[in-house]
Amino acid sequence: MIYSKSEMTHLGWIEIKANENSIISLSFKKGYDTLSSQLLDKAFSELNEYFARKRETFDLPLSYPQKVTTFQKSVIEEIKKIPYGETISYKEIAEKLNSKAYRAIGTACGKNQIPIFIPCHRVVGKNNIGGFRDGLAIKRKLLELEH
DNA sequence: GCAAGTAATAATT
DNA sequence: AATTATTACTTGC
């Protein structure tokens, strides 16, 4: 069973999807609400605390994208280690993994279905801000919020 | 020196 | 074989 719920937040509509155990995805749009669940309520309340600058970390079960490769998983693990308010460059992540896959990091981040909870907005380019699947405006606001 | 253009790099679909 | 949310190097101003 898939649960889905959308709410109007500080950044506009956000839709979160989950199954019985964990969060599956987060996207910036108004979606179709199906069933709600304890988990979704918790996710939204943590999210609102985060927007109100009362929360810096999330305590939620997250599920990886459908097909996770070893590489993607290590990238995600590194991203989740980034502390609140800090940013890291694509290159630095590659170095942490003893790899030179600068571009593949970007690809992995783009594959990420759960922005904010997996803080891919804290990953920026060395000279440019980088990209964001659901719009750069959102990425900037998130960084501004944590600053 | 600085700005813009280009090749190179690794992993996924 | 093409694509990617990059980087480092080269050239022209």
Averaging pLDDT over every residue, what do you get? 93
Range of helix content: 25-40%
Q: How much strand content do the residues show?
A: 15-25%
Determine the number of helices (DSSP H or I, runs of at least 4 residues): 5
Distance between the termini: 38 Å
Question: Count the strands?
Answer: 5
Determine the structural class based on helices, strands and strand pairing: alpha+beta
Major beta sheet, specifics?
3 strands, antiparallel
The radius of gyration computed from the alpha-carbon positions, rounded to a whole number of angstroms, is 15 Å
Identify the strand order in the major beta sheet: 1-2-3
Shape label: globular
Oligomeric composition of the shown chains: single chain
Question: What is the N-to-C order of secondary-structure elements (H for helix, E for strand)?
Answer: EEEHHEHHEH
Query: Low-confidence spans: pLDDT under 50, at least 5 residues?
Result: none
